[in-house]
Here is the input.
Amino acid sequence: MNFDFTAEQEAFRKEVRAWLEANLPDDLRGRSFASSRADRDEVARLRAWQKTMADAGFVGMEWPREFGGRGASIVEMIILYQEMARAESPQLVNRGGVSMLGPTLMKYGTPAQRARFLPKILTAEELWCQGFSEPNAGSDLANLQTRAVLEGDYFVVNGQKVWTSMGHVADWCFLLVRTDPAAAKHKGISFLLVDMKTPGITVRPLRQMTGEAEFNETFFDNVRVPAANLVGKLNEGWGVAITTLAYERDLLTFIRHISLRNALHRLVKLVRERGRAADPIVRQKVAALWIGEQALQLNGYRSLTRILRGGQPGPEGSTSKLSWSQLDQELAQVATEVIGPASQLAGESAWAPDEGQWEFYALLAQASGIRAGTTEILKNILSERVLGLPKD
Ligand SMILES: Cc1cc2nc3c(=O)[nH]c(=O)nc-3n(C[C@H](O)[C@H](O)[C@H](O)COP(=O)(O)OP(=O)(O)OC[C@H]3O[C@@H](n4cnc5c(N)ncnc54)[C@H](O)[C@@H]3O)c2cc1C
Here is the structure.
């Protein structure tokens, strides 16, 4: 494989680099690897940043032109992500919309749904949250009990979701509901698009150990959802959801990689500043992280290539999510060791390195092996569906 870039690709890199230099707001630069999605002001800033990027044509570059993208090649995508990491840009705030719902609508949505929703996903004018998990349906998602009953032109939704990231700031939710309780578990589920301003929705924040409330409990009490907001066929939402989850584990991890790379570069700086660069144990750990980061990137290229050639992520995409979460947690651990006790200091302290982002990062990383599929579930998927090992 030839890893060299052509003259046009190098010109594109120059264009992106100059654009990021000129446009990335100072208050977002450098606070990029552990940025909050709980604080409303921060979300507003991130939203404005995504709009600026979208207006310049840098969001959803890989989407076909008919859906508002550039139909960009894998190489341009790689260059964009490399340059975002280099500039210490945060990830896209509407990443669930861009990387999960967008591709799902391109595959299963009606022309009206695509025209209505895709443009505002790109610009973050409408922020999306994911309403899948319930108190008794996490890993065992097909156990979900939130009911939707079709009454005329509306579904009437009752039930509860949990761990809804950004539910408190989202405009819309892609929601899994049970529409046929008599059917087998994986049948009788449907996929709905729900306006979060609809009467009957209550969002209650859940405080996490980071001290923030980035996710929420979401209650639905006789919520009326237009039947036109059904994605795919009635009672066939499981297949739609599997597509969405595959994009979450594969494509979204590729984007999460920006934060990981930012954190790694910061760690190298910290190691040097703290005089630890000659310590062989620290060197070995940093080198292992660096190799892992590179492998993650290459694996991401492989998935992206398949998607851009018209395919879709399969169960093997779980390797990206699995290795990202392991790297993320190892990185947080190594940073904590290098910084020592000051790694526990939060942002307000003058002694907290990088404005306390490491303390936040170390706590947040605990969730990496849970969100978007737990480590155990991903290992099950890989052993059973990729390696073909027996279920028992
Ligand atoms: C930060 C964060 C953000 C999230 N955001 C969202 C969101 O926006 N929207 C949303 O819908 N959900 C979200 N989630 C929920 C997430 O998808 C679930 O937490 C996850 O699927 C696990 O489900 P659970 O918490 O119910 O744990 P459980 O499924 O109860 O699992 C508990 C433990 O048992 C293990 N386990 C369960 N089943 C098996 C099995 N068959 N074999 C081996 N081990 C097993 C698990 O690996 C885990 O260690 C978020 C979670 C986190 C941490």
